[in-house]
Amino acid sequence: MKKKSIICLFAVVLCLAMILTGCGTAQNNAGQKKLKVGFVYIGTANEPGYTYAHEQGRLYAQEKLGNKVEFVVQENVSDTDDSIVSVIQSMIEQGCKMIFANSYGYMDYMYDMAEEYPDVIFLHCSGSKSRENMLNYFGRMYQARYLSGIVAGMKTETNKIGYVAAHPIPEVIRGINAFTLGVRSVNPDATVEVVWTSTWYDPSLEKAAAISLLDKGCDVIAQHQDTTGPQIAAQERGKWCIGYNCDTSDIVPDAFLTAPIWNWGPYYTEQIQKVLDGTWKSENYWGGMEDGVVALAPLKNAPEGAQEKVDEMAQKIISGEFKVFQGPIKDQNGNVRVPEGTVMTDEELLSFNWFVEGVIGTIPED
Q1: Taking Cα atoms as reference points, which of 177, 171, 170, 141 lies closest to residue 358?
Q2: Tens digits of per-residue pLDDT, 238-249?
């Protein structure tokens, strides 16, 4: 009996040891805390548009980084008030150590919060303010807009092209100008008329703005908006459209020509991995077509010769042989703003407040 007792006791001890070992392993696995990363979006991620493109980038990062990261996402956060403050505070309370936010209007709030929370990393899309724990990131979308302008300029029959624009900030003005330069590089007689909506996301208002341009004889509609409203208006009228943010040819197949599009996945993955590796630094980013962060969607319903011209200019942009804002460039009043042989600096591009020749419209005070 005594021998059996010793054997039983040994078995119990062995089992306990195995259980404790197992628990220890589980604790180690669980103890490897995931990096919590927050994403704040101006719009909704389930409709093709600006926020949708960012969400596709986040999903790409999620796939690449696997179980190293846990994401917290908040959609439809206004940038016209301090809504983002409570959202970010909530994310920090949930343990987020890294927060991305995708609207220009968030900038000042994030800048202040970066000072308040020095141990949290802030990444702001499209702004201009930075700190040791806050950077700005964006892409040279004007490169793809120039290419889309080539397509529009070759497609128009009325030489009247409409542009539905959001807010009169340098980013939007820069895009309108690049698009117009692309249009007039192949069609000097064409003009681009701008209508402002003073909103990023309002499908009905954006559609109405496009309709007002179609009523004036515009047969191609371009946009800097977050919805497909302008594109739908063009299709319903039997005209053409240039999209934005992502390829929406499946939504407006009869009207779609192309679209300047975003590819945020590699950048998001890289930045998060740097935090995981302990190598992250506050370094502002403004990448171009050579990085793949901006591109042009495949051409549909395009005029003859457009693909060849786009390919030619895209290669020159990527190689650096051609700069979109190289002189000579005149403003809409005919004054030379960029002399021949010079190229606008990044500082000038980031503070754009005038229209190039060929644009019809004014820049209001936002």
Answers
A1: 177
A2: 999 999 999 999
**What local confidence, expressed as pLDDT, does residue 11 receive?**
40
> Residue 71's pLDDT band (boundaries 50, 70, 90)?
very high
Q: Could you list the residue range(s) of the whole structural domain that residue 334 is in?
A: 141-259+297-360
If asked whether residues 250 and 272 sit together in one domain, one would say no
220, 190: one domain:
yes
CB 226 within 8 A of CB 246: no
Does residue 173 share a domain with residue 304?
yes
* Of residues 133, 205, 135, the one with CA closest to residue 164: 205
For residue 18, pLDDT beyond 90: no
Q: Is pLDDT at 220 greater than 70 in this prediction?
A: yes
**Tens of pLDDT along 305-315?**
999 999 999 99
Whether residue 189 is found in the same domain as residue 331: yes
Claim to verify: residue 153 and residue 249 sit in the same structural domain: yes
Cα separation, 133 vs 135, in Å, equals: 7
Task: Assess if residue 113 is contained within a domain.
Answer: yes
pTM (2 decimals)?
A: 0.89
Instruction: Tally Cβ neighbours within 10 Å of residue 109.
Output: 19
Q: Measured between alpha carbons, how far apart are the two ends of the chain, in Å?
A: 92
Q: Where are the alpha helices (DSSP H) in 222-341?
A: 229-236, 265-277, 306-319
Query: Which CA distances in Å does 59 have to 21, 140, 268?
Result: 36, 22, 10
Is residue 314 assigned to a domain?
Answer: yes
Question: Given the DSSP bridges, would you call strands 336-338 and 329-330 parallel, antiparallel or unpaired?
Answer: antiparallel
Note whether 43 and 111 are same-domain residues: yes
Separation CA 151–CA 145 (nearest Å): 10
Does residue 16 fall inside a structural domain? no
Sign, Cα dihedral of 249, 55, 200, 317: negative
Structural domain total, the chain: 2
274 with 313, same domain: the answer is: no
Does a structural domain hold residue 77? yes
Helix%, strand%, coil% for the chain, nearest 5: 45, 20, 35
**Per-residue buried b or exposed e for 301-316, using 16+ beta carbons within 10 Å of the residue's own CB:** bbbeebeebbeebbee
Residue 330: in which H helix or E strand, if any? Answer: strand 329-330
